[in-house]
């Protein structure tokens, strides 16, 4: 409500630009004279204003500069008079005319409350994802702090209670902020704090384009949340998973045994099974992961990770996405990743695969867009018993002649079970793999004989008929 606000009107081609100020927030609204007339008709119909208050519609020489300036001042006085006449509860037509429903706290909450009054129950029953803007939740949080009635304009449909009832029962929420100012205002959503503690039953939340500093009350969702997605919002996992950590010098996760004295025991995320923190600026996997023991799906793609740490605390991991980070080496991955089934390392700078040799449960491995140049590196994953899907596309080794068959040959008898780069292995490729395996075996025999008994080994290959004949004689 613009109690101490002011209005400035500038006219351009008979369109009046109204600048509204509410505390630190400003925005502009464009209206023609006909819009003022429609507003006045609504207000007089409700018997709230004097019909003579609005400047007359018709004037002689209405396009002259002096008369235009005169009308501008009269319309400014008209709006100022209306705001002074209704200091506590702005009439709905006037609030809508000044776009309070888009930029002003009371107007925003009133508009949301009315929407939920009509559609809230239907949305909850449908179980759909509900979208909110940070500005809307900021307005709710601010209004809850004010010592004012929850319905200030007398319309029961706009009561704040409709919002609180809805947020208490909502299960799926999406919050998307904006870069830059909102609409025609100077409001920067990334600077507006908002409180998530009004949500009591959330199972899933997705937040994007919000600073971690403005998010309050996220820890109140630890007992209910199953899926947490956070994008373009943080530089650390700690600030999201343990926001209260900055208050304590030493803390430990609930239920963990610690040999050191702690100043706080932090509750764990009891039902969180999916954590998606892709597209952030995270540099390290810190020990905040101790609080998410039940996580099965972890997405940390498109961050700035150079090492993989602390994931040994996540005993239930099944799917891990570390693509498009800054990983150069991944040593002893099994000690950190455990019995995972899916691992994406695409878009890093890996040159070696020695650290992947003991990921025995791995089914799907994406190594595309790395720096793998030597076919010998495939031997490190060729003995993985469960591997079925392997993506090596866009690596330097892909330009090697007969690249596919040479890679498949590293899997020995399992070559037929491996889908390479999204393509199923063909019979022709399998035939060639058998030839390569025979050549490799002959080479191994020759190498053994050269270091032991002298042996002459001749190998005849008829590749057209896929026939192989060995003749070995001891001397």
UniProtKB/TrEMBL annotation:
<keyword id="KW-0433">Leucine-rich repeat</keyword>
<dbReference type="InterPro" id="IPR036871">
    <property type="entry name" value="PX_dom_sf"/>
</dbReference>
<feature type="domain" description="PX">
    <location>
        <begin position="1"/>
        <end position="105"/>
    </location>
</feature>
<dbReference type="Pfam" id="PF00787">
    <property type="entry name" value="PX"/>
</dbReference>
<dbReference type="InterPro" id="IPR001683">
    <property type="entry name" value="PX_dom"/>
</dbReference>
<dbReference type="InterPro" id="IPR001611">
    <property type="entry name" value="Leu-rich_rpt"/>
</dbReference>
<dbReference type="GO" id="GO:0005737">
    <property type="term" value="C:cytoplasm"/>
</dbReference>
<dbReference type="Pfam" id="PF00560">
    <property type="entry name" value="LRR_1"/>
</dbReference>
<dbReference type="GO" id="GO:0035091">
    <property type="term" value="F:phosphatidylinositol binding"/>
</dbReference>
<keyword id="KW-0677">Repeat</keyword>
<dbReference type="InterPro" id="IPR032675">
    <property type="entry name" value="LRR_dom_sf"/>
</dbReference>
<protein>
    <submittedName>
        <fullName>Nischarin</fullName>
    </submittedName>
</protein>
């Amino acid at each position: 409500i613009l109690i101490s606000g002011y209005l400035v009107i500038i006219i351009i081609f008979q369109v009046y630009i109204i600048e509204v100020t509410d505390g630190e927030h400003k925005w502009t609204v464009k209206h023609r004279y006909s819009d003022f007339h429609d507003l006045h008709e609504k207000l007089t119909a409700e018997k709230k204003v004097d019909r003579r208050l609005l400047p007359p519609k018709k004037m002689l020489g209405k396009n002259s500069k002096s008369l235009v300036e005169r009308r501008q001042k009269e319309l400014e006085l008209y709006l100022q008079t209306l705001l002074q006449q209704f200091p506590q509860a702005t009439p709905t037509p006037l609030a809508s005319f000044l776009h309070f429903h888009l930029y002003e706290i009371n107007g925003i909450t009133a508009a949301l409350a009315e929407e939920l009054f009509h559609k809230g129950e239907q949305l909850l029953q449908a179980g759909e994802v509900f979208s909110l803007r940070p500005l809307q939740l900021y307005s709710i949080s601010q209004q809850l702090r004010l010592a004012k009635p929850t319905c200030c304009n007398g319309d029961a449909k706009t009561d704040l209670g409709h919002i609180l009832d809805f947020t208490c029962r909502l299960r799926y929420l999406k919050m998307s902020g904006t870069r830059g100012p909102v609409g025609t205002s100077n409001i920067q959503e990334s600077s507006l704090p908002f409180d998530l503690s009004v949500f009591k039953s959330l199972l899933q939340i997705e937040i994007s384009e919000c600073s971690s500093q403005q998010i309050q009350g996220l820890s109140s969702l630890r007992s209910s949340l199953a899926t947490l997605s956070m994008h373009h919002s943080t530089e650390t996992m700690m600030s999201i998973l343990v926001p209260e950590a900055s208050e304590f010098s030493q803390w430990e996760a609930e239920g963990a045994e610690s040999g050191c004295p702690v100043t706080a025991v932090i509750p764990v995320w009891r039902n969180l099974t999916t954590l998606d923190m892709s597209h952030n600026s995270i540099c390290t996997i810190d020990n905040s992961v101790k609080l998410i023991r039940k996580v099965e799906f972890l997405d940390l793609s498109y961050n700035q990770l150079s090492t993989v740490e602390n994931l040994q605390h996540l005993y239930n991991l099944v799917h891990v996405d570390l693509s498009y980070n800054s990983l150069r080496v991944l040593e002893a991955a099994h000690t950190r990743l455990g019995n995972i089934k899916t691992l994406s390392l695409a878009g890093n700078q890996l040159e070696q695969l020695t650290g992947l040799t003991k990921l025995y449960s791995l089914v799907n491995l994406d190594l595309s867009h790395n720096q793998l140049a030597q076919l010998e590196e495939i031997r490190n994953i060729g003995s993985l018993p469960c591997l079925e899907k392997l993506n090596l596309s866009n690596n330097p080794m892909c330009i090697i002649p007969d690249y596919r068959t040479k890679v498949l040959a590293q899997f020995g008898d399992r070559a037929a079970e491996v889908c390479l780069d999204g393509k199923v292995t063909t019979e022709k490729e399998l035939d060639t793999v058998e030839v390569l395996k025979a050549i490799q075996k002959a080479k191994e025999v020759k190498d053994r004989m050269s270091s032991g008994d002298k042996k002459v080994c001749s190998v005849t290959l008829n590749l057209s008929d896929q026939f192989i004949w060995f003749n070995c004689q001891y001397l």
